[in-house]
Amino acid sequence: MNHAGEPTEPTGFARVGSVYYPTLVAVLTALVIISNVTATKGVEFGPIITDGGFLVFPLTYIIGDVLSEVYGFKAARRAVFLGFAMNALAALVFWVTLYLPAADFYENQAALEAVVHAYTQLIVAGLAGFLVGQTLNAWVVVKIKERTKEKHLWARLIGSSVVGQLGDTVVFCAIAASAIGINTFRDFAVYTALGWFYKTIVEIVILPVTYRVIGYIKRREPTYQPML
């Protein structure tokens, strides 16, 4: 509490009522919806088995890192819940559209059914995996920050990526594998291991970009208070 009896923000994080927080939440939500739609297609590069979500899904964890580092655990968790509320709405609209009377000239009903059924299963998988993964991701960032303060940002970002992506990938793949046609244990193991490895490596490779984004927002976010 301050002298006026009003609650003060914890040192080391910014308030969510700024222009940057809703923008980051909007980008996170869009990326999650896009990745869930594209994940309905299984993709194979020789021995490598994945899904179309690999194109943008790692970026959701970069946004999650930024939210956790700048705004804290509760704010990051709120963003995750909002993102999946919009995903649930998207799934509902897809189902309603699926059962609307088709026009005589519309010839893609079977294809739409296949995508919507797969998307719904992926929504469940994504909700479970993303909630587990992003919660672990945000928790690791905040816990390491409590020890390192403003130093060693790389340790927070890499540590949270390894732990968060592992939890997310195992949960997601266990539910989603059958939706994209993965039916053998070998394919499932490859799908899970390579998914975790790929997403973690992408986050590490893009670390300089994440550093710049976090630095940019910290410098321009008027409510951010460095953790001393």
TrEMBL record:
Record-linked Pfam families: Vut_1 (PF02592)
Protein name: Probable queuosine precursor transporter
Membrane topology of this protein: Multi-pass membrane protein
UniProt KW Cell membrane keyword: yes
Organism expressing this protein natively: Mycolicibacterium chitae (Mycobacterium chitae)
Residues spanning the membrane: 19-39, 45-67, 79-102, 122-142, 154-182, 188-211
Cellular component aspect of the GO annotation: plasma membrane
Main location per the UniProt record: membrane
Keyword GTP-binding on entry: no
Function: Involved in the import of queuosine (Q) precursors, required for Q precursor salvage.
Family classification: Belongs to the vitamin uptake transporter (VUT/ECF) (TC 2.A.88) family. Q precursor transporter subfamily.
Localisation per UniProt entry: Cell membrane
Lineage top rank: taxon: Bacteria
Keywords, sorted A to Z: Cell membrane, Membrane, Transmembrane, Transmembrane helix, Transport
A GO MF term: transmembrane transporter activity
InterPro entries named among the record's database cross-references: YhhQ
